[in-house]
């Protein structure tokens, strides 16, 4: 059964660029020696040279030229300082969010969908852009108290919204999720999503951790729900902040426990197949934990 599946999987996999055995490209947050300092700065005021992130829907005002991705500076905006919210510091430059979705397109600047930052360079600016998106979504969704309905106020001393009426405190939302590489000898289970228009990348099993559930329990549940398999020998690999969806990903490798026959949930997945190690393809310069784990398996370097 696995041999036949591998032949089918190879045909599907030819759509993707062959990655090297070095493990693929580094993940989006791997920006060393640069560092994103996410500490809150009380009473921060933007300088004329400070970077500004301004979103219109999912699109960010930016410029891409021969030197790569650039973000506008505070000097380009006539708005008062009170319109800007401090985000973080990167490479000695402070970043601020302009919480106003009115379209603005100075000469040479345009709006780009956040998905382009999966591949744009320099990578540290792309990481800053999606990290800003994570916080932007939180600010958009955190305007009123969920307990009493009162408009929220930003705390002075930390990155937190508080209710002046009932004292409710709301911190940036981070959604825990798992990425699961299910293995069976020299075979890896790869999938494609069914419910994401335009999603053509090969993926691993993935899902959000639910209340009262450990990350390990999430692995067992998601694999069973999506492909009907029992798994064993869970090995934690590493984590990744994935600000495209406000998620903290936890990567696991695991082995099939018993029967390897797939029962695919086609509401979640359009495809699930066993891929032979030698036939696994990567996502080119993709910067995801998924891609790194796939390439690790292809190179025979997965944790055992």
What distinguishing features does this structure have?
304 residues, alpha+beta, four-stranded mixed beta sheet, 17 strands, disordered N terminus
What general form does the structure show? globular
Give unreliable regions as ranges.
1-24
Distance between the termini: 24 Å
Q: Indicate the structural class.
A: alpha+beta
The beta-strand count equals 17
Q: Helical region count?
A: 4
Radius of gyration from the alpha-carbon trace, in angstroms:
22 Å
In percent, how helical is the residue content?
Answer: 10-25%
β-sheet strand percentage: 25-35%
One letter per element, helices H and strands E, the order comes to HEEEEEEEEHEEEEEEHEEEH
Look at the structure and give the mean pLDDT: 90
Taking the sheet with the most strands, its summary is: 6 strands, mixed
Write a structural description.
With 304 residues, this protein is an alpha+beta fold. 18% of the residues lie in helices and 30% in strands. β12 and β13 form a beta hairpin. The longest helix is centred in the middle third of the chain and has 19 residues, at 123-141. It is globular, with a radius of gyration of 22 Å.
